[in-house]
## 1
Amino acid sequence: MPPIPGSGLAKGLAVTLRTMTKKTVTQQYPDAQPELPPRSRGVIGLFEENCTVCMLCARECPDWCIYIDSHKETIPAAAPGGRERSRNVLDRFAIDFSLCMYCGICIEVCPFDALFWSPEFEYAETDIRELTHERDKLREWMWTVPAPPALDPGAEEPKEIAAARKAVEKLAAAQAEPPADEGGPA
């Protein structure tokens, strides 16, 4: 039996009528910002003060999208007769987000916690060359990084915090003790 002419059109209109009466699930993105999970991955933020220019992030990046330039600076001796030291100074830190695959390896390998995930995801550009973000832009993303989650109240205190607390208590106790007379009565 041949299909009735126009039956496909009638089925399509029936689907349209059924869905017209239901509440929409589409979010109007530019007008309504989405609720993101607390530690979502957007762009990478740079905390420049922690960067020691060790180059681990650039070496471990599978896409080679991290560009770092630095120079050595000599620091004078701390004490007379001491030796001078040298340290690396960051000149350029850039990430090419047109190449980045957001794997997070650079953040994981950074031993000094200089790189963090920012939840910002609105950084589209009309020119692909503008997707290479220099350190000033990466520093701006750092202010959008959420605070780390709170420690579990039932967990043990980290040993570093416990050691620091003991040192402070010991110092406070030493300052609170009155000085002892060593000479005796005169």
## 2
Amino acid sequence: MGTVEISHLQKEFTKEDSVRVIALSDINLTIADDEFVSFVGPSGCGKTTLLRIIAGLDTANSGEVRVDGSLITGPGQKVGMVFQEYSLFPWRNVLKNVAFGLQMRGVSKDERYDIARKYISLVGLSQFEKSYPYELSGGMRQRVAIARALATDPDLLLMDEPFGALDAQTRNHMQCELLDIWESKKKTILFVTHSCDEAVFLSDRVIVLSPRPGRIREILNISIPRPRDRTNNEFIDLRRQILEMIEDEDGGEERIKCKSGKL
């Protein structure tokens, strides 16, 4: 199970000068079990903040999030998270990094290593279980991070721009690997990205957020059969549609200046 219900969610921050900033406003969304949903929007629209609230790493000022009907009040076993920065322990090898969450839950050494090895194999790194993060490429480190998040068997996997620091070729390869994992493990995935191409390639639905305060501007159903062809006309049209929505609110004036040669 991995259903998510977000009801009337609002998040505010108070800056040092006591100015109140509304990051998210009245977010309402239901996500089905096993669904792959991406969030896109202008920088600062609250995508990461929303993911952190769903993960229980941050709290909303009002509204609520439920996963499988349970109210999220803090980090829990139902939710796993993968960050852009890999967040691996440099002093632990691959096996011990992947087993870390299981160790924190009191799983015995033999059992947690058996589970860790299963997920290391799933991401194609069985030959590197004794390697340390500094010995791995960026794509390999991110595979370790994904394996670590999956090893605790969460119902819901949250991913905050996990491929943003990778080169284009590695990023495309990791997208395909992630889809293979998603289809085999049947997890619900919520994915934050700045890439409209990535969102269309991966997702069942794409949620477009408005500039701050972040609100749901549009929800697009992506019905293109998988595996998806990025040169397909429907794919290109959807990518353009999402990009235009973001640019209209985030950079319309800047774009006009660029076209006029004044910037």
## 3
Amino acid sequence: MKIEAKGIRKSFGQPQQEVLHGIDFIIQSGEFIALTGKSGSGKSTLLYTLSTLDKPTAGKVFYDDEDTSIWDTQKVHRFRNQKTGFVFQFHYLLPELNVIENILLPAMKTQSQETYRKRGMELLDIFGIADKVNRFPGQLSGGEQQRVAIARALVMKPRVLFADEPTGNLDTYNGDLVMNLLKKINQEEKTTILLITHDPDFAKLAQRQIHLVDGRVNGTAI
């Protein structure tokens, strides 16, 4: 799924303070993009705006040339649930649900858990934690919890995956493992991935980098 940002501006507070200053770029369908920049450069704000979790103050976001600003609330919610996946620095697993139940949470919104159960089990196998299917989050390591969170984000076969510092709380081994899993999903399922990372080595694993400086794209996206 192609994503296009046209003149994206975002302001907060009173008086208004602009955080994003006219962002323009195109992410082609199936690309793996690393969004980089120092803390406070606007990376997370941009990711939330592109993903429809937040609205821009000005400018527009397009998916496959479709203007998201004209979507009603129902279409936005359906798009988020069925077409996108989200992975964050913290896994946000529900402690009272076991592994497979956490993975199937997106499917519960449409009462389609059984439809996606096989997919969930396949992801657990790919991620090397199929033996943990009935464990609860408190019985897993940090790396295992993050792999469950990624499986949850992918269970509905999203066309776009947004990842905000998914390796931020992991050691080197698990960070490498998570990045390799994301790269595998991108290559095999052609999922468009937009990844925020502070790690230059992880950024180099992406096909291209978009670097933000003070809310602006620093030169041409590379």
